């Protein structure tokens, strides 16, 4: 009997519809104002190997976010290092970045970075850096 119940429970879990899975890709909606302050003394992000990807996002707002009110964003980073090494490697750094976001009110953005190093090493590799950007 216990075995039958265990198998039944397992089948029930496997047969769950896709609608029961958690949503992906953002879609955050905020009805009021947002004040975001991010302070990072030092950050290092490293990915090594073919087609590796190192992505750093510090104090960023994105992924289809909607803010009905004002956005006040302050980002302070002492030192950031982001490295991807290998054939086809990609390194991307986004600090104090506002991307794919609708803001109904005013935007006040302050971004301070002491130093940022973004390196992609290897055949076909690429490095992207966005600091204090709004949009793409």
The neighbouring-strand order within the major sheet is 1-4-7
Estimated helix fraction? under 10%
Instruction: Classify the oligomer.
Output: single chain
Number of helices, counting only DSSP H or I runs of 4 residues or more: 1
Structural class: mainly beta
Rounded to an integer in angstroms, the radius of gyration calculated over CA atoms is: 20 Å
Tell me the major beta sheet. 3 strands, parallel
Q: Give the percentage of residues in beta strands.
A: over 45%
Instruction: Give the number of DSSP strands.
Output: 9
Q: Which sequence of SSEs, written as H and E, runs from N to C?
A: HEEEEEEEEE
Cα separation of the termini: 59 Å
Instruction: Extract low-pLDDT stretches.
Output: 1-23
Kindly state the mean pLDDT as a whole number? 81
The coarse silhouette is: elongated
Describe what you observe in this structure.
The protein is mostly beta strands and 136 residues long. The protein has a three-stranded parallel sheet with strand order 1-4-7, with no helix packed on it. Strands 2-5-8 form a three-stranded parallel sheet, with no helix packed on it. Strands 3-6-9 form a three-stranded parallel sheet, with no helix packed on it. The N and C termini lie far apart (59 Å).
